[in-house]
Amino acid sequence: MTHGLSSRHTGVLLSPRFLITTDSISVRALGQNSMVRLVIENYPIGNGGVYPATPLARDELGWVRLDTAYRKGSHAHFEFSTNSAERAFFGAAQIVASHQVEPPRETTAPIVSLLQDNSPSSSDELALRYADRLQHAVRAWQAQSISDEDTAFLDFFLRRDLLPTALAALPQLRESVERYRQLEREIPIPRRVPGVLEAAAFDQPLFERGQHTRPVQPVPRRGLSLFGSAPFATSQSGRLQLAEQTASAQNPLTARVMVNRLWQHLFGKGIVGTVDNFGQLGDQPTHPELLDYLASRFAQDEQWSIKKMLQLLMTSQTWQQASLASATAQDIDGNNDWLSHMPVRRLEAEAIRDSILVASGQLNPAMYGPGVNVYFVNKTEGGGPKGPLDGDRRRSIYQRIRRNAANPFLEVFDAPRPSTTRGRRDVTNVPAQSLTMLNDAFVIDQSAKWAASLITDGATSEQRVRRMFVVAFSREPDADELQASLDYLTELAAEHGIAVADVSGSVAVWQDFAQSLFCLKEFIYVR
After folding, report:
1. H or E segment at 310?
2. What are phi and psi of 166, to 5 degrees?
């Protein structure tokens, strides 16, 4: 099998599923900017990862060996794929499984096709035989029925320029080739995303004591026993039936878990405090009837629409309460379990970063597109990821997150590492957070950019302070805050050696003042 792709295509070719029983599998393949890998139990990892994989960077058929000794007893399939950024192709002619350390020897030679008949009696007869075999190979190639021997024979002549392939030697093809290249350039680059493909279904065996090399009786395909123990009535994988069962309005768990997570996202704490545990060891719901009502409405009336459910919660009186608790509420409901007032909430790490970009006027509101790297100054010499300091000013949702290269600014404010799922983030208040707002290169850089955007507005110090409070805190300063800010500006001017009359044009003074606003707790807390 062969598969050729232009520079503006991506391609993936999958083999049937099979059971690994040998120490190695060798593939006779060729390719450029492509890869062949063995996908174990339908679970690929990166570009091979811990699973057998090898790049294809050769334009002649040859053997590549994949070590499968550690994977014996597992089900697998081959995946041939191309790099979408480059012109690419791949092809495979043969797959051999064995216990040998070395791959098979190459046995196909160009001369084989000439040895099938009697020996020629003269050089003229030999030349005619060459011509006949070449014509036969070309016709077989056109009919897509060429054999390995004829392929090797034709390839021998092409590689040595014994047959014309360049446009200079084939001017009659120039117009067709140029038209082909033009059409090729007009083809948009497709996006490649993971997907699910239905294939031949089978029941996975139970692994005795969790060892994959000790399979016992097969386990029929079904969902959680909580929703019924009957196997799915299907000859396919059962994924569709599992999805239907999970998202069924009759399912008592899925809708409750989802609305509880949405409630926690808005109020800081779920109706069930243990959002990852609705079992016997989890917390009891503080408002069980409310949880039932929201779950029923979410699954039936709102048709599982997260947007509509969020709209319902955010237009409720509970959401619109003030965060200042009355004396009675503090006595009766000190932990605010009964939602007597809106809890004070700290912004999540990503929202803090985005708020700094908004305040400085640097946020890039562009939607969609690939993720961006962020340049971590304190990891430069350690080989950290390279990229703009402000992540190209994109929202934090567009940052590329890697398990081994987390953003230290986000980590300080409790952004979890992507090594496991977290139903509820930690919300801490530690000295490292204040130190980060004082010393982090990103915060300092955005303070400077905010200051640079202010000094040309022609406003007085009082007008500028009022405007900065509105941007940072969505309110104007009171009289005491305004006077304290003006006194602080005078102190900053003296520290930087700036005359009081020149304060309005000093980037250094306003940079320090801008950063001082970022450092206030009100900037990262919502009341």
Report:
1. helix 306-314
2. -85, 150
Q: What is the pLDDT of residue 2?
A: 42
Statement: the pTM of the whole predicted model exceeds 0.70: no
pLDDT of residue 84: 62
CA angle 422, 427, 433 (to 5 degrees): 120
Would you mind telling me the total number of residues written for the chain in this entry?
Answer: 527
CATH of domain 2-107: 2.60.120.260
Measured CA angle at 395 (ends 390, 399), to 5 deg = 70
Q: Quickly tell me which residue has 């009359």 as its tokens.
A: 501
Residues of the chain with pLDDT under 50: 1-9, 378-387
Angle at 125 between CA 119 and CA 126, to 5 degrees: 65
SS3 assignment, position 257:
helix
> How far apart, in whole angstroms, are the C-alpha atoms of residue 416 and residue 406?
9
Residue 175 tokens, joined: 């117009």
* Alpha-carbon span 123 to 120, nearest angstrom: 7
Within the chain, all domains assigned CATH 2.60.120.260 are found at: 2-107
Alpha-carbon dihedral angle through residues 316, 317, 319, 320, given to the nearest 10 degrees: 120
45-59 residue pLDDT tens: 555 566 788 889 888
Q: Is there a contact between 192 and 84 (Cβ–Cβ < 8 Å)?
A: yes
- How far is the C-alpha of 68 from the C-alpha of 514, rounded, in Å? 59
